[in-house]
Design goal:
single chain; 223 residues; alpha/beta; Rossmann fold; UDP N-Acetylglucosamine Acyltransferase, domain 1; 2 domains; eight-stranded mixed beta sheet; six-stranded parallel beta sheet; 4 helices
Length: 223
């Protein structure tokens, strides 16, 4: 059984903690966040440890970290924490729930999280520090780059490409051979049939491009 700490202490961490409580491969000792957030949020039953104290609480050679942060700022916060933990010497665990189905021939990226009933088909690639939520399909030969979030029920079709730091919402579909630019926000239920440019926002089933860039959308509206 691996000793582990969750990176994050908000809703995503709480959900992962519930899954991990039923997974006898891991012993979850606590959650870690940046020092300024250590007294905010929290997961029931878990101690929150400021990042500056983490090496004392669980030294890098004695356990692993599971990324349990959300997709704030188009996954930039998650990316920053991932990189800093690696610089501290921690192994970032690739967590695949026992009820997920992974048939890809290539190793999953470091620090990925793959939740129940997700299917990753042969030839698919998944980059480091990306989240594949429940009931997602990553179809054959598609690729999802690092620091992405693929929400529940989304379908990434064959040979499609999702570039880094992109959020794909609930039940969205990206069709075959389409390339989604980096830092995109693809809204829930959107059907994307054409390739997109970087920092774009596509909302609703029609997949019409939003007038804001993704950075401005997060600033003024949020995700």
């Amino acid at each position: 059984m691996k000793k582990a700490v969750l990176a994050g202490n908000d809703i995503t961490a709480g959900i992962l903690c519930d899954y991990l409580a039923e997974d006898d491969r891991y012993q979850i000792l606590g959650a870690t966040v940046d020092d300024g957030f250590a007294d905010r949020g929290g997961v029931d039953g878990l101690e929150t440890v400021a990042l500056s104290r983490l090496a004392v609480f669980l030294p890098p050679q004695q356990g692993v970290v599971i990324m349990a942060m959300g997709y704030n700022d188009i996954n930039r916060s998650r990316e920053s924490m991932f990189q800093r933990l690696k610089q501290m010497g921690y192994s970032i665990e690739t967590y695949v729930h026992p009820d997920a189905r992974v048939y890809a021939d290539l190793p999953l990226g470091e620090g990925c999280v793959v939740l129940p009933s997700a299917v990753i088909e042969p030839g698919a690639r998944l980059g480091a520090n990306s989240v594949v939520w429940s009931n997602v399909t990553l179809a054959h030969h598609c690729s999802v780059a690092e620091n992405c979030w693929i929400a529940s029920g989304a379908v990434i079709s064959g040979y499609a490409e999702i570039q880094r730091n992109t959020f794909v919402g609930v039940n969205a579909t990206v069709v075959n051979k389409v390339k989604i630019g980096e830092y995109n926000i693809i809204g829930g239920g959107a059907l994307i049939t054409r390739s997109t440019k970087a920092s774009s926002v596509y909302l609703a089933r029609s997949g019409e491009e939003h007038r804001f860039s993704s950075q401005d959308y997060v600033k003024y509206v949020g995700v």
